[in-house]
Each structure stands twice: as C-alpha cells, then as structure tokens.
Design a protein that fits this description.
Length: 354
DNA sequence: AATCCGTGGAT
DNA sequence: TATCCAAGGAT
C-alpha cells in the first residue's frame, strides 16, 4: 500500500462523505469552479481552535454577517468584536483576530499571505492555522496537523510515543501523505475522518476507508491511541462577585477587566480576587460601595482551563446618590445580552438578579 | 519548556 | 458527578 494510494482512497471517501459546513467549499462546488475565500477560511480556523464545530457555527455566521470582509473587520471597533465573541472562550483569540485583520488590511493591502511562513507571522496564527489556511485557501501542500490528525495518524502508524512528544513524527507522517493535488481537501478529509469515524472512543473502524491498513486496527490497539502525558489536576479557587442594582430599573453595575490574562478585556461585575485560600468572611471589604449587601444562596460554579471556581454572589441596591466610578457603568436589563460578558459572568449576573 | 488561556457536549 | 476533549497560540 503506497501512501499515494492511501491518499486517493481518502479523497474518494471525502468526495462522498464530506461534512457540509458554512465555511467549506464542497468538492462538487470546487469542481464547478468555486474557490475558498481566505478571509472566511481564516475566520473559521481561528474560531475552531480548541473549539467544536457545533459551538462555532452560529458565531461564524454572525461574524460573517456583521463583517463580510477583512476590511469590515479591520475597521470595526474592538469593543464590538469582543461583544460578538462573548461566550466562545479563549478571548485572546478575538483580540488577535482584530489585530490580524488590521495588519492584513492596512499593511498587506487586504490580502492574506499564501505561505505558512508568511501566515505564521500574523497574530493568532500558529503552525496549525498557517498550514490549514495555506492548504485550504491557497491549495498549497502544507502538512495540516490538529488533534484529529494526531489521533488518526497515531492509529494509522500505531505511534505509541505519548503526545505531545509524538508531534514531530506525526507532522512528518502527514507531510508524507499530503498530496500536491487537492492538499486542502486532503487535510479536511483527515479531520472529517477523525471527527466522524476515527473518534477518541469507540472508533467506527468498519466504516473507515483506511481500515485495511491501519496498524492500530490490525493489532487491536486503536482505542488506546493516541497516548497522552498525564495532566495535573485542577485546584479550586474561590471568590466573591457583587451585583449592584440601580433601584429605579434594576440595571446592573459592570466594569471592564484588564486587557491581558484571564478573560482579558471582557466585561464583569465587580468582584474580589480568586484564590485557593480565599476568605469569604472578609468579602465585603472589597465591595464596590458600602451598601446593604446580602449573600445569595446559590454559589456559582465554573471550570476554567486550569482551575475550578466557586463564586459567592452578593446583591445590594445602590445607595442614594451613587454614581458609577471611572471604568464602571450601568447596564439595563435589556442591554445585558449585548455586553461582552463571558459565560462565568453571565452566570454571576443571573444568580445576582434572580 | 511549561504554563496560561473558556466553554459546552459527550461519556 | 467527574473527566475528557475540540480545526491551538502566546509567552
């Protein structure tokens, strides 16, 4: 079995089973002359970083409607971009998305680089995304390696070296397999295979176009691959959040988080620091204003990438004559949906007002 | 090199 | 309920 034969078998499978996705130009449409738009491919790839297709779809369509071209996005207020991204997570992606759009529009005459090297210099574009854009949007034979490809190839070649140590070997294997003809379709084919057939648990090997020459399948180890280095457990941090309500209409006091770090640049209700050894008893020392604070019964629980959070929620009506300090503002109930509130803060607001 | 950075669905 | 993990990148 030559690698070129494997390649054509998978492309034939892709011609029949390619998923229909909003950002994808199907093999049939390509045959009819339609070409991928680099802006749309880039936008989808950034959104898809560490994020499921299902979670991305609505955000992608919303972004495309708000900003149909890289010029539109480059000229948009960053605040609007953060609001549109709110809830999707990994908010540095949104800030880098905006920066990248500005670079492409104002320094590169509105055109994305077509090589991996050129793409890699742009904010928010790393080795995976550069290869994906190069292959899918510009038809260049780049070796695209994401989590799906790592899983599929570690099984195909029965690579037992744990990730991430196995990455160079997998990258080399993908480079060997990737054809000069239809490299973008091939990359998407391997990713579709990983997403629909060669899944982490209970892979559907009987449906796989590569089943006959998959080493792990033949030796019965597919389920156990890829191996991964053990990850350390998450500590639990605690803190308090303060939901201050404007007596007249119930508007909620909000403020902006610092531009970098966790939830950087996003909107929040005022709160304490989050720490493992947090002392809830002293919470009110950190309240935005002296008021008639009452602790809510429900504690908001939320899990981030590297820690669990238990957030105690306090509520109070704003004292007479209170005006929001610098960097704070009132958000009326019907405006809350439009704020750049990350999910944990939506939970906090909900727990505070209900 | 190791750590930081969200979220929600599947199991 | 707890864990995994999904089209990773920046520092």
């Amino acid at each position: 079995m030559s690698s070129s034969s494997r390649t054509s078998e998978l492309l034939a499978w892709y011609d029949r089973h390619a998923r229909t996705l909003p950002w994808r130009v199907s093999p049939k449409a390509q045959a009819a002359g339609e070409r991928a738009d680099p802006y749309r491919i880039w936008l989808s790839e950034v959104m898809l970083q560490q994020t499921t297709v299902a979670a991305v779809k609505d955000y992608y369509l919303k972004f495309l409607q708000l900003w149909p071209t890289v010029e539109d996005l480059a000229k948009a207020p960053e605040e609007d971009v953060m609001k549109a991204w709110a809830g999707l997570g990994y908010y540095s992606r949104a800030r880098n998305l905006k920066k990248c759009a500005e670079t492409v529009e104002f320094e590169l005459h509105g055109r994305f680089p077509d090589t991996e090297e050129g793409l890699c210099t742009l904010p928010g574009i790393g080795p995976y995304t550069a290869a994906a854009i190069s292959a899918i949007a510009f038809n260049r034979p780049a070796a695209v390696v994401d989590g799906n490809v790592e899983r599929v190839l570690s099984r195909l070649y029965e690579i037992t070296t744990p990730l991430p140590n196995a990455k160079p070997e997998i990258k080399a294997g993908m480079a060997k397999l990737t054809p000069f003809d239809r490299p973008g379709d091939f990359a998407q084919a391997v990713m579709d295979l990983g997403a629909t057939i060669c899944t982490p648990k209970n892979p559907a090997c009987v449906l796989c176009p590569w089943t006959a020459n998959c080493k792990a399948r033949l030796s019965g180890t597919a389920q156990t691959l890829p191996r991964k280095l053990p990850k350390k457990q998450k500590p639990t941090r605690a803190g308090s959040a303060f939901v201050l309500l404007r007596p007249a209409d119930g508007a909620v006091l909000l403020r902006r988080r610092p531009p970098k770090g966790l939830l950087g640049g996003m909107t929040e209700v005022p709160g304490t620091e989050w720490a493992v050894d947090f002392d809830t008893a002293s919470s009110l020392d950190f309240a935005p204003v002296a008021a008639d604070w009452h602790k809510r019964l429900a504690v908001v629980k939320h899990t981030f990438t590297h820690f669990h959070l238990e957030l105690t929620i306090w509520r109070a009506p704003a004292p007479a004559g209170y005006t929001p300090p610098e960097g704070h503002w009132w958000s009326s109930r019907d405006m809350l949906d439009d704020e750049a509130l990350p999910t944990v803060m939506r939970k906090a607001v909900t727990a505070g007002v209900e």
